[in-house]
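Let's practice the habit of predicting before peeking. Look at the sequence and jot down your guess about where helices and strands might fall. Then scroll down.
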Amino acid sequence: MTNLISKKIIITGTVQGVGYRSWLQKICNDKGVVGWVANKKNGDVEAFFFKVGYEIFTNILSECFLGPKNSCVTNILVDDFEEEITSNNFEIRS
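Done guessing? Here is the structure:
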């Protein structure tokens, strides 16, 4: 049985204005992950992953450190996430 987890991550560095949200949305939609990603006012990007398999999450997390071209990730904070998400895909939010 697959362990399903819900996580929130905050990505810091040069992650706004470089297509990070679209890049992450494509990766997550390709893997069937439900959640959302948004820019924060302080220049970070935050993303929420709802009931995703542990191995898929760790794979996405590894990719997040690399990011899209022109991004420069300096840190990623990971935390548990308890809220329900009613979407069926991975969305970009403002």
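How did you do? The chain has a mean pLDDT of 94.
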